[in-house]
Fold:
Amino acid sequence: MEEQVDQFYQSLKGATENLGQFLNPDIEFTKDLVRGLMKNKERYGYTSCPCRLASGVLEKDSDIICPCFYRDPDVAEFGNCYCSLYVSKEINDGTKKTHSIPERRPKELRTK
Structure:
């Protein structure tokens, strides 16, 4: 299992850095999120955000499939996405810290 986590982590890291963003530099924290993504892939068939409740219906969850629709504006405005998997260069470099941010997902899309 850990080998699969490492592989998925490396693939996310490469894809993210090509976009000028970074995975959270706290590797253990980040790998916990990767495990959550993998669990959601197993559970639902897609990698829904591990920090949000998914409905299990792809059409209803399309906005929270990682990387979610909210990642780019969150990283641009706050320096990290909602779950802090993706971070800005400043956070990656250690000149800024991650912090909790407001949920951008509209209330009507959140699973009850």
